[in-house]
Amino acid sequence: MNELEFDVFCAHNSHDKIQVERIAGKLKRRDIKSWIDKDQILGGQSFQTKIQEAITNVKSAAIFIGESGLGNWQKEEIEFLLDECRQSNKPLIPVLLPGITEIPRDLGFIRQRNWVSFSEGNQQALDKLEASIKSKNIEPFFDILLCYKDEDMFEVREIGQQLKTADITLWKEGISYSNLQSSVLREFDKHLPRIWSMAVFIGSNGGPWEEELIEDIIVDFRLQKRKVIPVILNSAAQVDDSKIPVYLRRLGVVDFRQNDPDPVQRLLLGITNEEKDVT
């Protein structure tokens, strides 16, 4: 392991591991590498030794506090973290998981630090956590850009609402030919580095790539090796594969004409690489 590659050490109770791993997954989409013991300590290795090495070599640390309080290993980690962050001037960030609204009184040694609360909403908390880890202000982050033909707008927006319900952040209402005003393009160019993925919707009359400007946007996204997800809409009774660009045909497709597997779940998995419950 090259510890210097990690941006944040995640000190957490084992009871909170699933929640912390999900947060780490969201941070990964923001190009933040998290150190979590399960991923970095191999069988037979000393927990204490590896944790001490990691604490010395990460750029920041987050102390996750859930409803179960602090775990025994976590308490030991915090002792090392307090000393290391004080000596090296590294950010030490208390993170309150859902259900916790303030730092418990018995943890007074970190009560004076500004905390991040996931009870206030995931997006706000992630933005604040990212800014704290990087020690600087950040631009807004977007999980996905929806790219579609104008005639498919209402069907795409319905899918967009389902994504929002699953805590996915969309870039505005997406991009279609009718909303490509210069002001929108300027804003898009500004936010492009902070857009994680793109969904290209295919309807009964083709897709948005038929407009040259939009095709340039899709191709540029692919050239940057960023995630592009072709999505066939339910209204597309027949799709002529020969009319779909080769650079899209080679990618895994989410097909809303098929109910099994659930297309919304497949799209969410394509965006996040993790299963989501949207019921």
Short characterization:
The chain has 279 residues and is an alpha/beta fold. 38% of the residues lie in helices and 14% in strands. α3 packs parallel to α4.
Task: Summarize the main sheet.
Answer: 5 strands, parallel
In CATH, the architecture of the largest domain is 3-Layer(aba) Sandwich
Total tally of structural domains: 2
Q: What is the H level of CATH, i.e. the homologous superfamily of the largest domain? A: Toll/interleukin-1 receptor homology (TIR) domain
- Helical segment count: 10
Strand order of the largest sheet: 2-1-3-4-5
In whole angstroms, the N-to-C terminal distance is: 39 Å
CATH topology of the largest domain: Rossmann fold
Q: What general outline do the C-alpha atoms trace? A: elongated
**Unreliable parts:** none
CATH C-level name of the largest domain? Alpha Beta
Q: Radius of gyration, rounded?
A: 22 Å
H/E order of the elements?
A: EHEHHEHEEHEHHEHEHEH
Strand proportion: 5-15%
The assigned structural class equals: alpha/beta
